[in-house]
Each structure stands twice: as C-alpha cells, then as structure tokens.
Design a protein that fits this description.
283 residues, mainly beta, Porin, 8-stranded antiparallel beta barrel
C-alpha cells in the first residue's frame, strides 16, 4: 500500500514539474515589448469639455519601438490634427491574450504656429493578433483635460461624418438668383441604422429637418441624400413644406456641400450650403 502511494506521489510530482516547465517556456517565449513593435494604422477621436461630439481624424498611424532594455517601449504618434506625442519607457505586459500598455510622456500641441509642450499619459490595449486595440492619451492641461483615443482600423462612417459644419448658402428660385447668407451651420447625427439625421436652421431660410439620410461612398467621397420637411414663411406666417437634400463630404471633411430643394416655395427654391467662408463680392 505504501509503495502504491509512493509511486502515485512520484507521478504527480513529475507531472507538476512538466506543466511548470511548459508554463515557464510559454512565458519566456512572450516578450511583450518586442512582440508588439511596429507601425499601426487607424483613426483618432479627441474629446474635451468644450464639445459634445469628439473631433475625429482619419488615416493616422502610431509606432511602437522596443527600448534598448527590451522590456519597455517608446510610443510615437504624430497627428495632423492633434499634435506629436512621445511616450518613452512605456510598460508593456501580457496576460490572457491581451497586451496592456501604460506610461508617461509629452506632447507638442498648438495652433497657428503657437506650439507648446504638455505632459501626458498613455493607457492602451492590443489583442494577441495585433489587429484590434486602442491607445488613449490624456493631456490634463489642454482644454480642461483632453483625451485623444487612437483606434486600430478604418474609421466608421458614423464617426467620420457626424458633427457640425459651418459655411454659407446661395439660394435661387423663379424670382431671384444668387441670394447669399453667411454664418450658416448644419449638423449631422448618426443613427443606429447607419443613416443620418440632418438639422439646419437659418434666419434667412427657415428650419430644415431630415431624419433618415442614406449614405454611399465612392473614390473617397461620401454622398448623402433623403427627404424631409422645412418650416418656412414670413411675418409669422410659417408653413411646412416637403423638401429633399443631396450632399457630399470628402474623407478629409475639407470639401462639404449640401443642396436643399423645396419645390413648393417660390416656383421651386434651391439652397446650396458650402462649407467655409463665402467668396468676396465683386466690386
């Protein structure tokens, strides 16, 4: 009986030692700071207390470089919208198929050539396949506390197009042409079904609302279209009219235009919204 017990205990000890060796070999084969080195493509969102909708920037990249000690990493992220970030000595760990990063560094950030250096922190995660992950940079001293989150992958259309657009309008109908209005703003809100809600209120032209604009894309241009209503009138005599809208936004959100058509007003009213400043009037 004692011999059987001794043999059983010996077998258990050998099995335990074998499993322990396997675990050690697995851990030794994973050097987190080395394994995640590379350049990652994605998009960024900046959130701060002065805006309800985060600012977004597409087609961005972030680089992870292993430090000389092979245990930490340097994270560099340069954004055309949000500045330059460098986080040296970033701690990198691995557990349960996820890499976790944390560190402190600095960012060069500013506008119109007025660039300053600010302290920032980084927290990030990356999956084992290194095709999903987020990196959040926190800059406490900017805009009441700014969080910039870099996400791997292509930016969803809902995040790219949503927001407010400022510009000017030009209207034409059967009775006049080229009537301009400046300081105009319209907003796009993403819906759960991949459509958009558009709202445009103008002192000159009334209130326009569209609840379900469809979106298509081709060659870096997003086209939106749909039907809605406008509340329009003069001297307190306001009526509701059906209307349509078509619009286009490029991937960089630099070229934005929308055309509103109201068939039942003034023989057919067309209002074109263009992002940016109105052209100077001819002398």
């Amino acid at each position: 009986m004692k011999l059987k017990n001794l043999l059983a205990m010996t077998a258990i000890a050998l099995l335990t030692a074998s499993c322990s060796d396997d675990d050690n070999n697995e851990n030794e084969s994973i050097n987190p700071a080395v394994n995640i080195a590379g350049t990652y493509a994605g998009y960024s969102e900046a959130a701060f207390q002065y805006t309800d909708t985060p600012l977004v920037s597409a087609d961005e990249s972030l680089t992870i470089q292993t430090d000389a000690d092979n245990t930490t990493a340097t994270i560099t992220y340069t954004s055309s919208s949000f500045g330059e970030f460098t986080i040296s000595g970033t701690k990198v760990t691995y557990a349960s198929g996820t890499y976790t990063l944390s560190g402190e560094g600095s960012t060069m950030m500013g506008m119109s050539g007025n660039v300053n250096e600010y302290e920032c922190t980084l927290k990030g995660t990356l999956n084992e396949a290194k095709n999903e992950g987020t990196f959040t940079f926190n800059v406490p001293a900017v805009m009441g506390g700014m969080n910039i989150t870099f996400t791997l992958g292509e930016i969803p259309v809902s995040k790219l197009l949503a927001g407010s657009y400022e510009g000017w309008t030009e209207a034409s109908c059967a009775y006049f042409e080229g009537m301009q209005a400046t300081d105009q703003t319209l907003s796009l809100t993403a819906n759960a079904d991949d459509t958009f809600t558009l709202a445009y209120t103008s002192d000159s032209w009334g209130e326009f609302s569209f609840e379900s604009l469809s979106v298509t894309s081709a060659n870096g241009i997003y086209t939106l279209s749909g039907k809605g209503v406008t509340m329009m009138g003069m001297d307190g005599n306001v009526s509701e009219y059906p209307c349509t809208v078509t619009g286009s936004i490029d991937a960089n959100k630099e070229n934005v235009s929308f055309t509103f058509t109201v068939p039942g007003v003034m023989g057919g009213l067309t209002i074109t919204f263009t992002q940016g400043e109105a052209p100077a009037a001819n002398e």
